[in-house]
From TrEMBL:
Entry-linked PROSITE patterns: HTH_ICLR (PS51077), ICLR_ED (PS51078)
Keywords noted in UniProt: DNA-binding, Transcription, Transcription regulation
Species annotation: Blastococcus tunisiensis
Record protein name field: DNA-binding transcriptional regulator, IclR family
Alphabetical GO biological process terms: negative regulation of DNA-templated transcription
InterPro entries noted in UniProt: GAF-like_dom_sf, HTH_MetabolicPath_Reg, Tscrpt_reg_IclR_C, Tscrpt_reg_IclR_N, WH-like_DNA-bd_sf, WH_DNA-bd_sf
Database matches in Pfam families: HTH_IclR, IclR_C
A GO MF label: DNA binding
UniProt KW Lyase keyword: no
Organism superkingdom: Bacteria
Length: 245
């Protein structure tokens, strides 16, 4: 039983920190390096992880992990409904597009359509992101019940960059603004050099079932493009919401 628990712990750490080396993993999960290495090799044989071919060796999860996670009925339905819109947004704006769903006090990326530009953002499928950082998470958080917002605040507003909204009053004001304008903007609040725009996908009860967002390198973001970004995203989110059962 202990070996199974260790393997699951290592797999979760790889998913959150990939690509990641054995030494860092051992520190993160507080297990001996030899134990972590055995877990990684076992997971690799099972098809759950893979390692880079060039040194230094870094480990990542495989598509098999996401195939299992994405097969849950709730996520699968949302992904199927949203995929055409995600591709249309990417083809129109040529920025990376994410589909995100609520997972407890995090937002998890359940689908991604990559920009075709040479310089683009990258966040792995299955990555759990904070609700108070990226635009995708803030778009969801702004439309959650007060009790969920309070739980997010109580859990701690971790500061990821100098721009992170770690002050409660500032976050609440931001959530009010998002509800009024219909979209969220991330100006380097989770990762310093990544900006983004996100909108909620609202269900029939006006609660968020997920969000659609675009992300881009900070140097490519311009305020004058916000109406174009937000307009296309809001229109797409409404279409996805209408197609959900």
């Amino acid at each position: 039983m202990r070996s199974v628990l260790n393997a699951v712990t290592v797999l979760e750490a790889v998913a959150e920190h990939q690509p990641v080396g054995v030494s860092e993993l051992a520190r993160l999960v507080e297990l001996p390096k030899t134990t972590v290495q055995r877990c990684l090799e076992t997971l690799e044989k099972a098809g759950w992880t893979r390692h880079s071919s060039d040194p230094p060796v870094r480990w990542s999860i495989t598509a098999r992990v996401w195939a299992v996670a994405g097969s849950t009925s709730e996520y699968a339905t949302l992904r199927e409904a949203a995929l055409p819109a995600l591709h249309r947004i990417r083809d129109t704006l040529d920025e990376t597009v994410h589909l995100t769903a609520l997972d407890g006090l995090d937002a998890i990326i359940i689908e991604r359509v990559d920009s075709r530009q040479m310089v683009r953002t990258y966040t792995a499928l299955g990555t759990a992101t904070p609700l108070h950082g990226p635009a995708a998470g803030k778009a969801i958080l702004a439309h959650l019940p007060d009790v969920h917002v309070a739980a997010t605040i109580e859990a701690g507003l971790a500061r990821f960059t100098d721009a992170t909204l770690s002050d409660v009053d500032a976050l609440e004001e931001e959530l009010r603004r998002i509800r009024e304008q219909g979209y969220a903007v991330n100006r380097g609040e989770w990762r310093r050099d990544i900006f983004g725009v996100g909108v909620p996908i609202l269900g029939s009860d006006d609660r968020p079932v997920g969000s659609i967002s675009i992300s881009m390198p900070a140097f490519r973001f311009r305020d004058e493009d916000l109406p174009r970004y937000s307009g296309l995203l809001m229109e797409s989110a409404q279409e996805v919401a209408k197609s959900l059962p």
